[in-house]
Amino acid sequence: MKHLENKIAVVTGGTRGIGKAISLALAESGAHVYALYARSRKNAEILEEEASGRGFKITTIRGDLSHDQSYNQTVRQLHESCEHVDVLVHSAASGVHKKAMDLSERHLKWTFEINFFVAHKLTTELIGKMGRGSKIIGITSPGGTRVIPKYAAVASTKGAMEALFRHYALELAPQGIAVNLVCPGLVMTEAAKALPELEQMLKMTLDYTPSGQLTTPDQVAELVRFLTTDAAGQVVGQNIIIDGGKGLLA
Ligand SMILES: NC(=O)c1ccc[n+]([C@@H]2O[C@H](COP(=O)([O-])OP(=O)(O)OC[C@H]3O[C@@H](n4cnc5c(N)ncnc54)[C@H](OP(=O)(O)O)[C@@H]3O)[C@@H](O)[C@H]2O)c1
Q1: pTM of the model
Q2: Active-site residue set
Q3: Which residue's CA is the nearest one to ligand 1's atom 7?
Q4: pLDDT average, residue stretch 182-202
Q5: Parallel, antiparallel, or unpaired: how do β-strands 32-37 and 239-242 relate?
Q6: How far apart are CA 77 and CA 154, in angstroms?
Q7: Residue 249 in domain
């Protein structure tokens, strides 16, 4: 029997990039996955087709989670569809690429809304459906602790998320719910391709990554999948870096 058979997983940002790889990995392990996304129906359809071709259960739900109305609608749908939630993965993220000194309050509020407040609202909304053995996993970034040029807005949300998740981990561990973070290095997704000065960042990443390779969405998904196993039950409140060793260098 697959380890997530009869389990339900909710993956925000679950239809493309890293989130898509996570949705497929969890569905392959037997979970019924609810993959949330904001806009791209095309990506959702491609994922649903791939899932049904491979005999996986993936349901996509569209809704911009940073807007109250579509957030409420998404949550209603999840409540109606999910008797329980066993795995909750926060992968959705967005944000403006600007220097810290060029960030307005509006830029920061908007970035915090999707990357930070939505993660908290959804966690507290669904926690009542999560029992012993459940897992909450946040996808963070090296920007949460280090400087990536013009990444100040997203970086701030990741740092805040890391702090919040440490508290989640401590508060929820006695209930048998394990909370962890996964921190990938540069992964070539659509979001990464939109980074300013990508060429330069790509070269620097490859030059300074001891393994000499970029991290792939599937490698991140495998790590997330491991965190959903019983074997990972004692992994609590960690921020696991998957970057080919780049973060080791001073
Ligand atoms: N790529 C990297 O190098 C890298 C490195 C470290 C950490 N990360 C983190 O890994 C996670 C996934 O990154 P990625 O590169 O795979 O991103 P991506 O390709 O841009 O995918 C982002 C996902 O989030 C969804 N999303 C964005 N805004 C939303 C909103 N307002 N409401 C609902 N859903 C929303 C998108 O939906 P639509 O498709 O409909 O727009 C999409 O499914 C993020 O948390 C990111 O910070 C990425």
Answers
A1: 0.98
A2: 151, 158
A3: 141
A4: 93
A5: unpaired
A6: 28
A7: no
Atom of ligand 1 nearest to the CA of 66: 31
Provide the residue range defining the domain that includes 178.
8-240
- Of the residues 165, 187, 223, 239, which should be mutated to test ligand 1's pocket, given the most ligand atoms within 8 Å of the CB? 187
pLDDT tens digits, residue range 144-187? 999 999 999 999 999 999 999 999 999 999 999 999 999 999 99
Cα(153) to centroid(ligand 1), Å: 14
Per-residue pLDDT tens over the stretch 27-57: 999 999 999 999 999 999 999 999 999 999 9
Helix (H) or strand (E) holding 180: strand 178-184
Q: How far apart are CA 114 and CA 111, in angstroms?
A: 6
Between the CA of residue 147 and those of 116, 131, 156, what are the distances in Å? 19, 37, 10
Residue type, 77: Q
Number of C-beta neighbours around residue 190 at 10 A: 10
Does 232 reside within a domain?
yes
Closest Cα to atom 42 of ligand 1: 13
CATH number for the domain harbouring residue 158 = 3.40.50.720
With beta carbons less than 8 A apart as the criterion, state whether 18 and 187 touch.
yes
Residue 16 Cβ inside 6 Å of ligand 1? The answer reads: yes
